[in-house]
Write a structure and sequence with these properties.
Layout: H1 2-41, H2 43-54, E1 55-60, E2 67-68, E3 74-86, H3 93-107, H4 111-123, E4 129-132, H5 137-146, E5 153-162, H6 170-173, E6 176-178, H7 181-187, E7 197-199, H8 202-206, H9 208-211, E8 216-222, E9 228-235, E10 243-244, H10 249-258, E11 265-270, E12 277-283, H11 298-305, H12 327-337, E13 346-348, E14 351-354, E15 357-360, E16 368-370, H13 372-378, H14 381-391, H15 393-402, E17 421-422, H16 425-429, H17 444-451, E18 457-458, H18 461-472, E19 476-478, H19 487-490, E20 495-497, H20 502-518, E21 535-542, E22 549-557, E23 564-570, H21 577-595
Parallel strand pairs: 2-10
Antiparallel strand pairs: 1-8, 2-3, 3-4, 3-5, 6-7, 8-9, 11-12, 11-23, 13-16, 14-15, 17-18, 19-20, 21-22, 22-23
Helix pairs in contact: 10-21, 12-14, 12-15, 13-20, 14-17
């Protein structure tokens, strides 16, 4: 028994070197594989980690390019913002109360606000907390004079976007905002930094790549303790390019001012020869500098994003009932169809029945037997009811498309644009956008409404500008644009000859001249001297949503070889186009004529 036990121990001792050899070999193999993984397979990754521990990059923010008006006046630029910050984790509780009261008295800020920001910073474990996000010059000087006694506080600087005219042309210029965490994942490949700014709307958005510039910086080498050793090189940041708009600051200021007493509305001033926008204003508007604030008060945020007045909506590119300014489309449909030639004379009446409704003349009397020119001059409803009913919905739709309706205008800021609606028989068959196909047929009442720009017609002020420009320039559909020296807008494609008989266009043009000479737009001449001949059209449209009237007035001057076109629109402003919209256009014409 003892012998067997001894034999087993002997065998066990003989196996130990073998087990040790196998274990050692296996361990060595693991180490070898790990070395192969580190040195060969994953070399670049660990080399990068090593460099990141040894090399630091001090980023240099680029200056965003300026946005200028046509004469070089600055509409948007960048400025240095000085902020007062504090590092909560470095402050001893015993000293905080003294520091808080000192900074409150010195810089005239509420001590409760300072306290709240400090506590929030501690709670969120922020490495730094902004106490005042935009120091004025007086505050900056006072701090610098006393900073030896305020060691807990520091001044930080950064470039922010600045809009010297605040809300001027806000919907055109647009604004910037920091990129989100989600955006950073993709934008970092394009050179964006965390919390970098990016254009969100308007020119800031459309020309982001052109005006943003490129980040630069200095690479430095540090030791294991993170202390500076040497500079490895500097790459200067590249300033963004300036962009020059077609906007005329003087006309833009007038456009903004004439809207001040209106609840809502829009003004477009355009060169009808090439589509260059000289002014574009929309009300309500907003201060672009709001988006440059680090801290955005909840009240201001809600007033901008949650208001029923929708100040962010660009009404110059939004669709509305056009009313009588649409009558040129119905007139051209009648002329182009051949059913109502240039010498057409129709009897206007107090009221004409279509379907189950009697559609009235706006003076409830009629204007006797008249032709196209006088029908435009007095803005007769019953004349255009007869023309519209005679040619039908699809002919009106066809002509409207030639004039640029029911489609985007081509303007750069198309992200804000609504293409509107011009009805057709097919649209009605398909359910009108809300019903079931075959359940919403075209009815006689529709054509009466359509003929004078109501209900089944929704157009934007920019579309109206394009259509009237085609009348003023002799039949060319232009592409509205906001930027100068852009090849796209100097090409032949931005000015297209429309397939409408020039004689018909000339007849409409003559009618629009009569509107201002002796018709509904005659007051444009009141109290104005030396103004070139003006042609135009008034319009009053009932808003199908609210029942309140929209006021319109469109005009161009000089009547021949026109250089300026104005669209004035007042939303939900009862009283008519000649009462509310025409005076706005008059002020713009006066300012333009004075400067010229």
């Amino acid at each position: 028994m003892k012998k067997n036990s001894f034999n087993k121990k002997l065998i066990s001792l003989k196996r130990q070197p073998l087990v040790l050899l196998i274990f050692s070999s296996f361990s060595f193999l693991l180490i070898l594989l790990r070395l192969i993984f580190l040195q060969l397979l994953n070399y670049e990754s660990f080399q990068k980690m090593s460099d990141e521990n040894r090399i630091r990059l001090i980023s240099s923010q680029p200056i965003r390019g300026k946005i200028l008006d046509k004469n070089g006046y600055v509409l948007a630029d960048s400025r240095v913002q000085y902020s007062l910050i504090i590092k909560p984790q470095l402050i001893r509780d015993a000293n905080w109360e003294k520091h808080k009261l000192t900074i409150s008295d010195l810089l005239n800020v509420d001590s409760n606000v300072v306290q709240k920001k400090y506590i929030d910073g501690l709670k969120n474990q922020n490495l730094s907390v902004t106490i005042i996000d935009d120091l004025n010059v007086d505050q900056l000087i006072k701090f610098k004079e006393n900073e030896d006694n305020l060691l807990s506080f520091e001044i930080s600087t950064k470039l922010i976007r600045n809009y010297p005219y605040k809300s001027l042309a806000a919907h055109v210029i647009g604004y910037t905002q920091p990129i989100t965490d989600t955006e950073y994942q993709s934008l970092s490949k394009k050179g964006y930094k965390f919390n970098d700014l990016i254009g969100r709307t308007g020119i800031e958005y459309v020309y982001e790549d052109y005006i943003r510039g490129e980040w630069g910086g200095e690479m430095i080498e540090v030791n294991s303790l993170g202390k500076f050793q040497k500079s490895l090189g500097i790459k200067p940041s590249i300033q963004g390019k300036d962009i020059e708009l077609t906007i005329d600051l003087n006309l833009q200021l007038v456009a903004e001012s004439v809207l001040k007493d209106k609840k809502a509305g829009a003004i477009i001033v355009m060169d009808p020869r090439d589509g260059a926008i000289r002014a574009m204003a929309s009300k309500p508007t907003f201060d672009l500098n709001f988006f440059s604030k680090d801290f955005k008060p909840e009240r201001e945020y809600n007033a901008l994003f949650n208001s029923s007045e929708k100040p962010l909506l660009n009404r110059a590119l939004n669709a509305y009932d056009p009313g009588s300014v649409w009558k040129i489309v119905t007139a051209l449909a009648g002329l182009e169809s051949g059913k109502f030639p240039v010498d057409t004379m129709l009897e206007t009446k107090p009221c004409i029945t279509y379907g189950y409704q009697c559609f009235r003349e706006h003076n409830d009397l009629g204007f006797g037997v008249i032709g196209y020119e006088d029908a435009l001059r007095v803005s007769s409803n019953t004349f255009f009811y007869q023309v519209g009913y005679g040619v039908g919905v699809d002919k009106i739709n066809e002509v409207s498309r030639k004039l640029g309706f029911n489609s985007l205008s081509g303007i750069e800021i198309s992200e804000q644009e609504n293409k509107g609606l011009v009805a057709s028989s097919q649209w009605a068959k398909e359910g009108r956008g809300w019903g079931k196909p075959g359940r919403t047929p075209w009815v006689p009442e529709d054509i009466a409404s359509m003929s004078i720009g109501q209900m089944v017609v929704q157009v934007t002020p920019i579309q109206i500008a394009r259509a009237y420009a085609a009348i003023s320039n002799g039949g060319y559909l232009v592409t509205p644009h906001l930027t100068k020296n852009n090849e796209k807008f100097s090409s032949d494609q931005s000015r297209i000859k429309i397939d409408i008989d020039p004689k018909h266009i000339q007849l409409i043009k003559s009618g629009l001249r009569k509107v201002v000479e002796s018709g509904t737009g005659v007051s444009i001449n009141t109290g104005v001297t030396n103004l070139p001949p003006v042609s135009g059209k008034t319009g009053t449209a009932e808003d199908w949503k609210t029942g309140l009237d929209h006021a319109w007035f469109v005009c161009f001057t000089p009547s021949e070889k026109s250089e300026l076109l104005v669209v004035a629109f007042a939303e939900n402003t009862p009283g008519g186009g000649s009462v509310h919209a025409l005076p706005m256009a008059k002020e713009i014409l006066k300012a333009w004529n004075k400067n010229n």
